[in-house]
Amino acid sequence: MLERVYETILKRKRLPSSDSYVASLFKAGQDTILKKVTEEAGEMILASKGQKREEIIHEAADLLFHLLVTLGYHDISPREIHHELARRFGQSGLIEKASRKG
């Protein structure tokens, strides 16, 4: 499903229409997109603290959607994120993080 949503996001980027929320985000630019990610992350935090399952699911979907828009802005596919997660899988997070410090 994430890949399908991402493909739709890219389509809205390539062929914007005046009634498209995604096209309006791309037109407004990266700062507006990132403000939405920040807003949705905050709402996710509040939902998590409130411990209401349906709210957490709703806000997680909103956050994932806006992360996909951010990836689309940079033409980074969810598949690339999948590969990065696969690369990290099975190794200590502390070791992986230390390896990035160079």
Description:
The structure is a single chain. This protein is mainly α and 102 residues long. It has one domain (2-100): Helix Hairpins. The protein is 80% helix and 0% strand. The protein is built from six helices and no strands. Helix 3 runs antiparallel to helix 4 (53-73). The longest helix is centred in the middle third of the chain and has 21 residues, at 30-50. The chain is globular. The N and C termini lie far apart (36 Å). The model has no long low-confidence stretch (mean pLDDT 93).
Question: How would you sum up this structure in a few lines?
Answer:
By secondary structure, this protein is mainly alpha-helical.
State the order of secondary-structure elements, H for helix, E for strand: HHHHHH
Count every beta strand, where a strand is a DSSP E run of 2 or more residues.
Answer: 0
Gyration radius, rounded: 16 Å
Percent in strands: under 5%
Top CATH class? Mainly Alpha
Whole-number average pLDDT? 93
CATH architecture classification: Orthogonal Bundle
- The CATH homologous superfamily name equals MazG-like
CATH fold call: Helix Hairpins
Residues in helices, as a percent range: over 70%
How many structural domains? 1
Unreliable spans are: none
Shape: globular
The SS-based structural class is mainly alpha
